[in-house]
Amino acid sequence: MSVAIVGGGLGALRTAESLVAAGYAGEVTVISDENHLPYNRPPLSKEALKEGVSAEKLEFRRRAATDGVAWMLGDGVRSASFADRILTLDSGRELAFDGLAIATGIRPRRLNVPGPISGRHTLRTIDDAKMLREAMTVAKSVLIIGAGFIGCEVAATARQLGLSVTVVAIDQAPMVRPLGFQLANELQRRHESKGVKFHLGVGINAFLGEESAKGIQLSDGTEHYADVIVEAIGSIPNVDWLEGNGLDLSDGVIVDSSMAVVGITFPAVAVGDIAKYPHELFDEIPRRIEHWNLPTETGRRAGKTLAAWLAGDKPMAEIVNFIPTFWSDQYEYNIQSFGMPGLADTQRLSYGSLNGPCVVEYFRGDTLVGVVGIDSVPQLVPYRNLLMKRE
Amino acid sequence: MKVSVDMSKCQHYGQCCYEAEDVFRLDDDGKLIYLAEVDESRREAVESAVDVCPMQAISID
Q1: From chain B, which residues contact A within 8 Å (Cβ)?
Q2: How far is A148 from chain B (nearest CA, A)?
């Protein structure tokens, strides 16, 4: 019996651990195009840029029970044949499997506009962080395209390193889609008070430069130059290798609440950033959510599902009862969220004041769907349980 | 089992408390306090706490 886990991040690790803990005693092979064992990505936009990148320091603790897992690193999966249950790797090697875990995650989305390709940084992997740190170490200015969490965290880190920082984005306020305007406007004010310049509500016409990008032209016609350019405009799921097997891959991989892939008849699960499923505490609409706690939650569930399914007993789906949770450190501010504030139609300040520590509640109709706090961890504690109670 | 938290990494997000509330808790000021010596019977819960720490600040022997 053999299980192939494709992808080598946090979701892959948690799936392997859970599979073994559930009593599966066959072979487990993790196949990853990265050259590193699973590591923690959030520090890549903060400590790793400030202090230098060390793969060893970022690696997750791996439980002793997973010592038997084979890590096939530096060789991604090019294609899969579900009919034959065979993977073909980038190197041309082939690998047969009985059970499959899809954990290939996401990659940064790139702008498709005229201009040079080189000289444009993204931030997803250790190798990306190494290159960005090297570039920032000798730079005076950085231009960040995108005002989501990664863009804003890089902006904060770059200011702490003394660089001049400009953020441009199509959005009207930083992090506005998950946070709404109340907090987004306040966080913009805090970034500006630290010296960040914003150009918001504008698109990018082109990258400027000969061989390497040195600047950008915005849709308002203005041109902006910087020593370092970072693209942080979101991500796309790594599903290319799954094509040709009849799955709906339009936005990740659709799974049921046990993380079993919908549309596959052999034991197969998907986890982490790539997995799309209904968060039933909120509604029945399948969503793909890229929060840090979800690879662990989905991996724990997927390993159990796969072990039972391989033993001939596909488990019944139980309700998805985990709460999407995220954290973001920008300057001295800690931002933490539970739930899905992005679903809300109204917001209410429930603690503190917006220009200091605060908690904002998010409602859809009368129902609490999320909460965000700045420097207010103790005040946030009750909300996780509130959100877990299904009305 | 020995438990230690690297307080230079810990941001007091309290995720560990949900996994092992008898080992980790936030005090009234929101600062993490924890037991440094924990009975072996709680290993599974403490390992879960290690897993869910977003700062990966917890280590066990």
Answers
A1: 11-15, 17-18, 26, 28-30, 47, 50-52, 54, 56, 59
A2: 19
Residue A238 CB partners (closer than 8 Å, separation 6+) = A7, A104, A105, A106, A107, A274
Cβ contact, residue pair A60, B28, below 8 Å: no
pLDDT digits (tens, 9 = 90+) for B13-54: 899 999 999 999 998 888 999 999 999 999 999 999 999 999
Tokens of A54: 């060390």
CB neighbour class for A83 (10 Å; exposed up to 12, middle 13-18, buried from 19): exposed
CA distance B13 to chain A (A): 6
pLDDT in tens, A214-225: 999 999 999 999
CA-based torsion, A250, A124, A4, B49: positive or negative: negative
Q: Which of A14, A40, A336 sits opposite B13 (nearest CB)?
A: A336
Confidence of residue A391 (pLDDT cuts 50, 70, 90): very low
Answer whether A154's CB lies under 8 Å from A144's CB. yes
Strand pairing class (A141-145; A164-169): parallel
Delineate the domains of chain B, giving CATH numbers in brackets.
3-60 (3.30.70.20)
Find out whether A364 and A281 touch, Cβ atoms under 8 Å.
no
Sheet of A86-89, strands arranged across: A77-81, A86-89, A94-96
* A42/B11 Cβ within 8 A: no
Cβ(A295)–Cβ(A272) under 8 Å? yes
DSSP assignment of A192-234 equals HHTT-EEEES--EEEEESSSB--EEEETTS-EEE-SEEEE-S-
Q: Which domains does chain A have, with CATH numbers?
A: 2-107+235-310 (3.50.50.60), 111-231 (3.50.50.60), 332-388 (3.30.390.30)
Which of B15, B29, B56 is closest, CB to CB, to A40? B56
Residue A311's nearest CA partner among A84, A3, A14 is A3
Helix A176-193, helix A149-160: angle, nearest 10:
10
Distance, CA of B2 to CA of A126 (rounded, Å):
31
Backbone angles phi, psi at A331, to 5 degrees: 55, -135
Q: A361, A350 in Cβ contact below 8 A?
A: yes
